[in-house]
Amino acid sequence: MNILEKIVSVKQKEVSRNRVIRPIKELEKSLFFKRNIFSLVKRLKDSKTGIIAEFKSKSPSKGVINNFVSVEKVAKDYESSGVCGISILTDQNFFSGKNEDLEKSRSIVSIPILRKDFIIDEYQIIESKSVGADVILLIASILSKNQIKNFSKLAKSIDLETIIEIHNEFEIDKITENLDIIGINNRNLQTFIVDYNNCLKLSSKIPNNYTKIAESGINDVNHIFELRKQGFKGFLIGEYFMKRKDPGEFCKKFIKSLLSL
Question: Lower CB density within 10 Å: C or N end of the chain?
């Protein structure tokens, strides 16, 4: 069983448990459930940088990345640095994330927040809205095309934007209606190995009517410049910022460098 299969197996049990602890009717009573979202698509189209900065304290491949900074400080600093949006890991077992990280961030920032998790059930989409997310991530490698179609339709019905994350050419066939953003991940989720050229290899095969973002292994402003030439509007950066003592300050300097290109 590879890492991704382990994550999905644990996630199935987690969702079953959460359905009992917090039923959907309870989730729908959340104050966040009624709010209008901040659109990541619009922010990316209007942005000169396209940076989506991630809060991630741990990963299966790297272990602990940063366990001494608070999500509140990092989220606020990311916002003030001028990012388009913030991505927050909410998986507890493998990434040490939690829904409360997203809820705390939602209460103090006024920019789009992506809930980064392994969504395998409609329950998690309702849950995402209830904790204050604006955008959800659907990982093509763990979902069928029919699931992606149904999940993205549900997301749209409750005013959430959806990113489909693909890793190879076969997963392009899973692109369906109601999706807002196509994310190409340089990281193979079976092995967690990063191929820095994956985005460039798949870019031309993505339909032009979708907003494209690049994910994983991005740590150079010149790399972003090359990706922009291939039509990418967004760049999700997590570990590169989070492994610094002050992720928000480092993000600010990175954006300043990017704007000087």
Answer: N
